[in-house]
Amino acid sequence: MRTTKLPKWLLLLAAALAFPAEAQPLKIGAPQPMTGPDAPFGDKFKKAYALAVEEINGAGGVNGRMLEVVIEDHQAKNALAATIAEKLITQEKVLVLTGGRASGQAMEIASVAQRLKTPYLVDHPSADMITTKGFEWVFRNNPTGSIYPSAFNSFISEYPSAMPRSAAVVYDNTLFGKTIAASAMKFLKSKNVPIVGDEAYPVNTLDFKGIMTKVKGTNPDYLLLVAVATTDAILLTRHAKEMGIAPRAFVGFGGGFGVADYASQLGPLAQNVFSSAAWSGNPNDPRTKAFYDKFHARYGIWPHEHEVEGYAAIYIIADAMKRAKLTGNLDADRDAIRKALAATDMTTVFGKVKFGNWTGPTGDPFTNQNIYSPEHSVLAQWRDGQLLNVWPKAFAETSVVFPEPGFKQ
Amino acid sequence: MSRTAAIGWAAGVAALAVLPFAVRNVFLLHVVILVFMWTVLGAAWNVLGGFAGQVSFGHAALFGIGAYTTIILFLKAGVAPWWGILAGGVAAAVGSVPVGLICFRLRGPYFSLATLAVAELAKLVALNWEWLTNGPVGFLITTLPPLSLFGHPVDWEAKAPFYALAALLMLVALGSTAWLSRSRLGAFLVAIREDEDAAEAVGIDTVRAKVLTLALSGFLAGLGGGFYAFYFRYVDPDAVLNIGLSMEMVFIAMVGGLGTVAGPFIGAVFLTTIGEAVREHFQVGHLIFYGLFMMIVIRFLPEGIWGRARLAWARGRTGARRHGAA
Amino acid sequence: METLVQSLVSGLLTGSLYAMIGIGLTVVFGVMRIINLAHGEMVMLGMFAAYFSQKLWGIDPFVSVLAWAPLMFLFGMLLYRTLLRKVVPGGELNTLLYTAGLSLLVANLALFAWTGDYRTINLPYGLTPMRPFGIAVPAALAIGFALAVAITGALWAFLNRTDMGRAIRATSQNREAAVLMGVDVERVAVVTFGLGTALAGAAGVLLAPSLYLYPTVGELLVVKSFVIVVLGGLGSVPGAIAGGLLLGVVESLGAVYVSATYKDGLGYVIFLLVLLYRPAGLFGVGKS
Q1: Residue C282 is assigned to a structural domain of this protein
Q2: Pick the CATH number of A150-277+378-395 from 3.30.1540.10, 3.40.50.2300, 1.10.1040.10, 3.40.190.10
Q3: pTM for the whole thing?
């Protein structure tokens, strides 16, 4: 048989023609609040996504193709979030959606994603409703609001004499606040803890002194505070302490209690306040530590919940894309990625990820909710301006300070 | 109706019918639907603010009543959304009557402040009366009822049915405004707007006129709210009852042209295009431009874009000045 | 009993600062019949002024207020001269809408310039409250209260003892008569607007250490200030003081004895009732 030697350029041309998709980036759409009062959060996600994409692309991309995150501004408005999700799906032709930030916007994005058959990986929004509607195109990595208090629940159950003798709960009148408060109170009631205070306040209340005066009158053993907004978290704590409330423990639920601003603005008033959040980082894990240091080196700020969630989301998506067979047909690819997401079984900086259908603390069935979510809930405590994990013991960085020093029996 | 107006209407309806076939881009159709929805809302405000001269800062409350009525009727009573939207309009109109009876005792800026308070109270109710509104959790429509028109099942994932509905609502809104401008009630409103005391002196029942107008305004706003619930499928207090919505309605009506029929449409087009453009290309909030344009319009273009255009055209045509009342 | 007293004290302290915001608004209305929806933004600017002067130059807000108040006065005059003067003749409603636009503009420019990050001013002596008779009195609020009283006193003296002050009161009572008496009402208008802005800005500076700062805080404050001004009677300075204190106490007691959820609603309901049945204010001294 005679073999013909083909000129090199012909071979290269053939190669280029045979793999035209090589230049096509893999697009991920991310609606985030980039302007307006929620903008600081959108910025966190932007930084996190950028770092993840840089790392993945630097290591050769996903099966040779580069990732690209397209962020669009929804200004914390539900209708805009829906508009943008549609735009990302139909105009930008993204393969996957992530982001959303606040639950109201996430609900719209989930609704659009489900209808337009595009996978949506929820990274931060916490309303249980997003994954209890049976949407097979929507996946969530982070814990829901009702799961948030898990670590706190286990702490009071397992730590010696930590079970509250009474509890006052002050929470904001939002989806977030109500869900968490309801979940926490449900657990406390199941342990026969009297709820001596149940105060819902409107978001961005200027003055909590009135509420705190009332709460002081009930002399609670534990004071549980829920705040979606950082400002509320700060003022709640400040006014509670100003009014002289002195429980055995202050416990904060919500992003506002876990951000650096909280400690920097409150100074010594933040000392020993517990913060129950979706993640404070498992410091015993070398990957987490590496991420922490790299993020700090790159951006000059320490990452918390939001940054980690965004970073992990990109990695989860990349993992799914790697396993999915992408043919270039948009609809088929989106479905392939959906199937790949459903088969996810990996560990990210955020924690272990596997999506499943199970029943949550509210009694509603979850679809595609991370089955490890209850483990992701962590109880941390502020010490000298640093937020350190204290419970569960496996993730603890330091020992618990409890009860509050100076607590009078 | 004058010949020009008739031609205008015919051309408009023809354009509406052709558009969805000419525009294939799904996202662009979505923007067009938004423009239609905002036109309805702007027209709603215009009826009260432009024709009757009563500046309300609380129209979001009427929008919210429409949205909640539609979605609650569908999710709790299985009432199909297209009837629900109508019910939303009626509910908002009915709800506006006690508000009007209370607030219309006040004049000018006092009225405006009162509407502000009423709207904020409405939001508080929506947030806290969970038995009715589900509180901050809100309502989500996951599946829409099947419907067949002319033997074809309607595809709710396509834009066409919503486009048709939005266009219909817009025609209703603009049509009502046109009717109002030519009716006796409309004439009363002009009188009230110019000098309420004189109108009273002439024997016009100003309270009745204002309440009827508010009811119409509420009806239209409620229709808009019902459409929002149907199209966006998720209603929570912050999305449908916030003061930003009220201000946007004012803005559309003012920039388009108070007291004109086409004004709200022009205003809606303007607002939506500027909003999208700014959002995309500038990392600046579009609200800066809303505020700026509001100020510019009041200072230099109090008749609004359309109002000024009509004045210029009228002046060009006949060489005489005409009052831009209807 | 302690709860009641604590509630009253907190309410009065906060109310005094609300009152200052209200005085600025009412004075402007009394003289010029302008309902300035951008008033809340003036307070916001004052808050940020206090924040930056503390952050960048280390000046305590209670000291910097002495500089910021006159600056805000000049700023207000400038604002009136350049932006408002031509619009005012267009009528009350036009001006209302115009100031609504201005409010949107200023708040969003601030949002753009300073981002939505929440900031607080931390005063080292403000951390632990004073506890006279076991009632918690936050230091920053107490000092703010004292200064607010001082500034109001100075305003009182100005309005009653100086020529310009009398001119302002005259124009407020009866504009035509004032013109006939030879008062330069245009000049009075400019000065009054400056005054209103200065009071708002000063209130912002004094409030900043007790609250937190974000560019859209004006939205919340402006509604409160309208409630105050209507309660006390539009145009009446003593009315605004009483209204501010009253609102502070009502909100405080409301949060404790009624419910935190509805405490804002309480304010709105009272507002509507007063508008309907006592439009001249609770003390009947307001103008329609």
Answers
A1: no
A2: 3.40.50.2300
A3: 0.86
User: How many interface pairs between A and C have CB atoms less than 8 angstroms apart?
Assistant: 102
Domain count, chain C: 1
Q: Which residues of C touch B113 (CB under 8 A)?
A: 35, 226, 230, 271, 275
Which pLDDT tens digits describe chain A residue by residue (409 residues)? 444 555 555 555 555 555 544 568 999 999 999 877 788 888 899 999 999 999 999 999 898 899 999 999 888 888 889 999 999 999 899 999 999 988 889 999 999 999 999 999 999 888 888 999 999 999 999 988 888 888 899 999 988 888 999 999 999 888 888 888 989 999 999 999 999 999 988 877 777 888 888 898 889 999 999 988 788 888 899 889 888 888 999 999 987 888 777 888 788 888 999 998 777 566 667 888 888 889 999 998 888 788 889 999 999 999 999 999 888 899 999 999 999 999 999 988 888 899 999 998 888 899 999 998 888 888 889 988 888 888 888 777 788 888 877 676 5
Predicted ipTM beyond 0.85:
no
| Among C102, C114, C104, residue whose Cα is nearest residue C47 | C114
Shortest Cα distance, chain A CAs vs residue C20, angstroms: 16
Domains in chain B and their CATH numbers? 3-318 (1.10.3470)
Please judge whether A210 and C138 are an interchain contact, meaning their C-beta atoms are less than 8 angstroms apart: no
What range does the domain containing C268 cover?
A: 2-119+127-277
